[in-house]
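Q: Got a minute? One more chain.
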Amino acid sequence: MNNHQALTIRADAEQSADLVRLTLTVDLPPGVHLEPHQPTEPYLIPTVLEVDGLRDVKVDYPTPTVKDLGWQDITLTVLEGTLQFVVTGRAHAGLECISGTLHYQPCVGGACLPPTTTRWQ
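A: Always. Here it is, folded:
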């Protein structure tokens, strides 16, 4: 993976009975953005978080920022910097069994790179 595509994911979880609250923190390199879960334009690839090891999953996606990238006549919403995804659900087993994937398309400036999937635990 190229440096401009590299991102880091940290998972922190709390459990009360079978209810789990998981916070995933994703750090994007400077100059890199992702499309939000609900992109501005239908042709853009959304960021999607999948979680294994939980049932009744609810994902609160990061709030995008509005940005004029200067390469089209439209203003887009994008995800940049440090992102937090908050997940709640009911555990099938212990916290160590929770994992998942983040599907996204990194973009640098006006160039979007191939869609990518990163696994986390």
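A: The two ends are 19 Å apart (CA to CA).
Q: Perfect, thanks.
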